[in-house]
Automatic annotation (TrEMBL):
Protein name, UniProt field: Antitoxin
Family: Belongs to the phD/YefM antitoxin family.
InterPro entries: YefM-like_sf (IPR036165)
Superkingdom in the source lineage: Bacteria
Region annotation Disordered: where it falls in the sequence: 64-84
Length: 84
């Protein structure tokens, strides 16, 4: 990647189309809240031929496993998904 551009949420909302053009030039756009980075916009594929498999792989890579989940509350619902 060539470089990083840091913007706050309000600026990102106002300049979204311009930020996409920046990403297409192989730069990374980092979106911040109160000065802390919270998200990034990066190109899907180096050769511009992004596939859905690449999109899903990136989405999964960016989503950490929920290690704090203790229950999915299956005990509260019947086999049809309705409350017991």
């Amino acid at each position: 990647m060539a470089g990083k551009v840091f913007v706050d949420i309000a600026e990102a909302a106002e300049r979204f189309e311009e930020l996409i053009d920046i990403v297409l030039r192989d730069d990374e756009v980092v979106i911040c809240r109160a000065g802390d980075p919270i998200a990034a916009i990066v190109p899907i594929s180096q050769n511009g031929q992004g596939t859905w498999d690449e999109v899903w792989a990136l989405a999964l890579k960016g989503r950490p496993a929920n290690t704090h989940q203790t229950s999915n509350h299956d005990e509260l619902y019947d086999e049809n998904g309705l409350p017991k």
